[in-house]
Amino acid sequence: MDLPLDFATLRLIWWGLLGVLLIGFALTDGFDLGVGSLLPFVAKTDEERRMVINTVGATWEGNQVWFILGGGAIFAAWPTIYAAAFSGFYIALFLVLAALIIRPVGFEFRNKIADTRWRSFWDWALAIGGLVPSLVFGVAFGNLLQGVPFTIDADMRIFYDGSGLFELLNPFGLLAGLVSLCMLVSHGSVYLAVKADGPVRDRAFRVQSVAAPLAVVSFILAGLWLSMGIPGFEIVGAAVTDGPSNPLLKQVVVKDGAWMANFSTHPWMWTAPALGVAGPALALLLVRLGRPGLGFVASGTGILGIISTPGLAMFPFLMPSSIMPAASLTVWDSSSSERTLFVMLVCTLIFLPIVLSYTAFVFRVLRGRVTTAQIESNPSGHY
Questions:
Q1: What are the tens digits of pLDDT across the range 317-335?
Q2: Of 290, 292, 340, 366, which has the fewest beta carbons less than 10 angstroms from its beta carbon?
Q3: What value, to the nearest 5°, has the Cα angle with vertex 81 and ends 15 and 63?
Q4: Where are the domains positioned within the chain?
């Protein structure tokens, strides 16, 4: 039976949906991670720390659904990417998962015992649980842009030839990690400007005044480094967009400036880096003008631009290989079957609007500030 969409279109749609899920995760769970990273620094008393935790306490579980959706989408739509990523980034992903496990334990256990040392321990656990993923996700993106050291044999087996975690912590990878960390810390500080009050809000202002400019400067530096100092990948000849998922059926060259080719061919793509620069800067201005709600929207727009920029630069590559360029995984040769992509698309069109509607409903119901008075009037609250 013929499907209503051809294989190439389905692959392109799922490339876009993967980007949507990554951006959705950064927009929602991203401010949770940013708030967690800031917990020991913007809140000094137990009441203030409880206030900070309560700004995200009712939504963090729902926000983390985007992370699960993203992982599930990669596993089902791009199984070769999933396999290669867990081979090459195994230790890094283990650190992320460990940090994400610490977070719910911290949320649930912190208020169980009214002991200063107990609560301080879980406060720092929440901070680590926010900081580590924020940094590691950026480091991973930085290494994708440089190419991952893996090969594929004739039987389609993937072999990772890297040396482990410290290889990922190269200068450009760390710069990309700094971009991610500053982006999410800035996003979290804007969220606190919306939801918190008193000294916590004032400290969040000060954090944003540092994090937002750092996000912009590091993003620009990473772009300049990428355009002038890091070779990109390019498919030789016309890409076969509707062929079998066999990465070895193409030829790839590595050359300087290749990651900028898409921006030259499609000038509209410059919108993404423009948003990545303008978003955090505008968010900083709006918060200073007393419009933190609009500032949060601007911060989210900046995240959209920052994440979209490397995705557009790399297209159609998803995971290039630094030691066997022909084995690089692309949109056109690393997907599941045509029927699998179509069935998943139907399911996504049914369930994604439900997730979006529920998310919007929850944030509407829970709108408003968390105040010190509310915390003091409920000393035995859940968080």
A1: 999 999 999 999 999 999 9
A2: 290
A3: 65
A4: 24-376
- pLDDT over 80 (residue 163): no
Residue entry with tokens 């968080």: 383
Token pair recorded at residue 56: 């995200």
Alpha-carbon span 150 to 357, nearest angstrom:
40
Judged on CB neighbours under 10 Å (0-12, 13-18, 19+), 12 is middle
Short-list 192, 219, 217, CA closest to 206: 192
Mean pLDDT of the chain: 90
